[in-house]
Amino acid sequence: MTEIAARLEAAGKEYKTGESTIVALQPTTTEFRKGEITLIVGPSGSGKTTLLSLLGCVIYPTMGKV
Hints:
The chain is mostly beta strands. It has one domain. It is built from one helix and three strands; from the N terminus they run ββαβ. The chain is elongated, with a radius of gyration of 13 Å.
């Protein structure tokens, strides 16, 4: 088993605008291991950039942990 490089545990991101809440990333649990290649694909608005921003510590999750 290879070493875990990054892990998300029920990590999600929401933005509040007035009375509205925009869900940028549903709570997600996954692991990324050293030496593995992972592709992140999905339609526009599915949370790919938000996921990468959480992994890179550019933004912080509003729920769960990275």
